[in-house]
Amino acid sequence: MAIVRPFRGLRYNVEKVGDLSKVITQPYDRIHEPQQARYYELSPYNFARIIRGKQTPADSDADNVYTRARCYAQTWLAEGVLTREERPALYVLEQTYTTPTGETRTRQGFSAALQLTRFDEGVILPHERTLSGPKVDRLNLTRVTETAWGHIFILYPDDENGVNGILRPYLEAHPPLVTREQVVESDVEQRFWVVDDPQVIDAIVKEMAPKRNLIIADGHHRYETALNFRDEMWRKYPDAPANAAFNYTMVTLVSMSDPGLVILPTHRLIHSYGQMGGPEARERARDYFEVTTVADRGAMERALAEATPDHPRFGFYDGAYAVLELRDPGVLERLLPDRAPDWRLLDVTVLHELFIERVLGIDKAAVERKENINYLRDPGPGYEAVDRGEAQFLLLMNPTRIEQVRACTAASERMPQKSTDFYPKVISGLVALPVGPEERL
Q1: Which residues of 15-37 are buried (b: 16+ CB within 10 A; e: fewer)?
Q2: Domain residue extents for the chain
Q3: Where are the beta strands (DSSP E) in 78-234?
Q4: Cβ distance 139 to 132 under 8 Å?
Q5: In the predicted structure, residue 124 carries a pLDDT above the cut 50
């Protein structure tokens, strides 16, 4: 069962902070040094100070990014910059945005406390592999602050008249608390509601209860961190009741049938690579692929859009343009007989197993260390890097389809990292969930 509960969230007090666009941020794993510096400059109350604080050479066990995060949270709460919801609520985030192809779409999700379950219980399922480093970092933050600050973006099986149908009359009757254009992602309008009507909440809790096979779209590290934190708290507080907040974590749930659900491709840029040039790479690729030279970028992108599920293809740019299409899907069955058929035909599987490893000779360990590879949402800088001689090849990808995510998850196959880029991201800073030992839901 998918057990969701309303919670008394921590939220910014707009009377204190003013423009919320000055304090709301991207998820922590999207905040790199340039973004971190910009967020710090925007406001002394910016959320990055909690979820991605600056390290200093003087950091110690007593004074570090985690203890400073706790200090910010406690100080802001005491000053009224952060406030606690008076009664339990669900939170709705509606995001309207423009896709790279120019379509305007709206995606709706609702935030709740979700009861934590192990993956083998079949309620919540992962679709990507995780790394240990981010989990240690997030666990340290959770331990010190006793708060779930970041949202875990989860997809749930539903139709348009399910949870969204229950919420629709409430949202139409109540103006959003937040309506701000371009808060974080460019061209994304964020609208935010606090839903504290007990009847609406009860209907949603009952609608979600029988659901299984919910899929983590973004936030695998945060979910596994929440499990680890829960297990630690179980050892410390073995008599805690089932409604202890640490048995839950904060999630934003989006229906798999939501028309605004979009996955963007993540392109690969090969750099610092000298084993072979473009002509030789294309020639060697003929062992596995039909290689077709095309005139320009537009022709390459149009050819990618015509790919069929059983013959994945990707674009290749080294100053000239080509399209590489898998010739024989059976080759992956012979090379990887223990893997599920749907996993073998993922575009990222075909690209990495056949082209990057077997054609270019870059092994999995080097890929994991990012020795010769960068990942790009926008291919533009990749084309420019190749033209300037700073990279050797740009590999253009098609997006993974939601049907492929479902199929791989159902087969218990975790997809390679950077297989999916769900857009837009669920922004951070609108609400947080306290999970200290005395908190109850």
Answers
A1: eebeebebbbbbbbbebeeeebe
A2: 4-262+423-434, 266-398
A3: 82-84, 90-98, 104-115, 124-125, 147-148, 152-156, 178-181, 188-195, 214-218
A4: no
A5: yes
Angle at the Cα of 427 from the Cα atoms of 426 and 432, rounded to 5 degrees: 100
The CATH class, in words, for 266-398 is alpha beta
**Contact assessment for residue 239 and residue 153, using Cβ atoms and an 8 Å cutoff:** no
Q: What is the 3-state secondary structure (H, E, C) of 394-417?
A: EEECCCCCHHHHHHHHHCCCCECC
Query: In this structure, what are the phi and psi dihedrals at residue 104, rounded to the nearest 5 degrees?
Result: -100, 125
DSSP H or E stretch at residue 373: strand 373-376
Cα 410 to Cα 123, 357, 416, 418: the distances in Å are: 11, 27, 15, 19
Q: Which two tokens stand for residue 307?
A: 């790919």
**What would the two tokens of residue 423 be?**
């857009």
Pairing of strands 147-148, 124-125: unpaired
pLDDT digits (tens, 9 = 90+) for 24-59: 998 998 898 999 999 999 999 999 999 999 999 999
- Give the DSSP H or E segment for 291: strand 289-294
Strands 152-156 and 248-255: parallel
Give the tokens for residue 292: 């077709």
Q: Is the pLDDT of residue 132 over 60?
A: no
Residues forming a β-bridge with 264: 421
Residues 370, 239 contacting (CB under 8 angstroms):
no
In the block, tokens 């779409």 appear at: 105
Does pLDDT of 354 surpass 50?
yes
| 135, two tokens | 């989990």
Please give the helix or strand (H or E) that residue 222 lies within, else none: helix 220-236
Q: Which residues contact 90 (CB under 8 A, 6 or more apart)?
A: 6, 110, 111, 112, 195, 196, 200, 201, 204
How far is the CA of 62 from the CAs of 70, 73, 149, 278, 417, in angstroms?
Answer: 12, 16, 21, 53, 35
How many Cβ atoms are within 10 Å of 41's Cβ, its own excluded? 10
DSSP H helices in 43-85: 48-51, 65-79
Encoding tokens for residue 105? Answer: 């779409």
Stated length of the chain: 441
3-state secondary structure of 72: helix
CB 45 within 8 A of CB 167: no
pLDDT tens digits along 57-82:
999 999 999 999 999 999 999 999 99
